[in-house]
Amino acid sequence: MAHGISDPDCRKEYFDSRKELNAHLDQLAQWIKESQHFIVFTGAGISTSTGIPDFRSAMDTVLPTGPGAWELRDNKKFRPNSANAIDDMQKAIPSPSHMALVELQRRGILKCVISQNCDGLHLRSGMNVEHLAELHGNMNLEICQKCQARYLRDFDTDMDHPRHYTGRQCSKTDCRGRLKDSLIHFGEDLPADELKKAFDHAEKADVCLVLGSSLTVTPASDVPRRVAKRKQKLIIGNLQRTPLYTRATLNIHAFSDVIMKGVMKRLDIPIPPYILRRRVHITCQSNNQTQKSTVLIEGRDPDNSELPFSLFQSIDMSIGKKKKHVLTEEPFTFEISDKNIQSIAIQLHFFGHYNEIPFTLDYINVKTIPPEEQFYLFYNPMSGIWRKTIDETDLPI
């Protein structure tokens, strides 16, 4: 069973003075500029500014989210009503730290994020999965126990089942294996492929920045430890001291957002706003015998067109002025007569974690629906507007 931090010196929160912080950020930015293989290791502390509480912050923490989950349990306390904590992690908007890491990865500066987080915010922020190792799983990802196929969902896949089964099946007709959530509970083995990716990058890293981790959970914490053992630069950004405090090249006691905002300013790289990214794949197949067309609408991962992504709570279709035909479960397929010459409106309804409005696809008639169509939908939660584009880099400002 997991517990809070027992060492009083490691439970205490420290803050660098302004002079110390500026000097530390100057040095960190310079090391990043000079690095050949820069990696970042993240823990729960990177997400506290989004309203997601961490696990090991002390009872007297300054964090708005309040004490850590394990600390509360150890002290037989409940989270105070005054805590600024969200009740649904799906509604969390990626922090400036998340978005800074995305921009560094896009520019080729950041080679990999090794994450202990299971909140899904790294993927949601736009981090390319090729440059991400999620050691403790992802609440939005489930995996087929039989063929290992992966499925992203825009909802929490954790059913709190002791064997991780979600109640869904693999959509491959030649498999139909049972799906499991990908979360790693304490005492369970970490995913071998993610752990290998993490250590491969630790072997190459010349600069490793830790953001918001107590570094008390193994084998995940062995990743930054490996960087220190190779005598490469290990920078730990955390309010509390960690077991690697004396092994670190530099310790920065500040909030993750303060660190990343300061670093990005010194690198002269703007932090992009968070944009919700969706990829939609539509096929329309005509059957000459039935003289009907079957329209299939699917979500796909924005960075991997082969990875299914459940994006829609429901989809409805109306032909001309006829009553809407509503589907609420995958697969979302509609049959339309090839003889129909009326206009077609297909409305996509999302899960609405960020109050996304529905998006409507309008076609003159069934003949104007392409045999295969793939496009992106980008949504800015601040403006509440969708943008449709075939250019994955055409993000709204």
Automatic annotation (TrEMBL):
Keywords from the UniProt entry: Metal-binding, NAD, Transferase, Zinc
Give Gene Ontology CC terms.
nucleus
Domain of life where this protein originates: Eukaryota
Q: Which GO terms describe its biological process?
A: negative regulation of transcription by RNA polymerase II
Reply yes or no: does the keyword Transcription regulation apply.
Answer: no
> Membrane: present as a keyword of the record?
no
State the InterPro entries in the record: DHS-like_NAD/FAD-binding_dom, NAD-dep_sirtuin_deacylases, Sirtuin, Ssirtuin_cat_dom
Per the similarity annotation, which family is this? Belongs to the sirtuin family. Class IV subfamily.
Q: Tell me what this protein is called.
A: protein acetyllysine N-acetyltransferase
Species of provenance: Adineta ricciae (Rotifer)
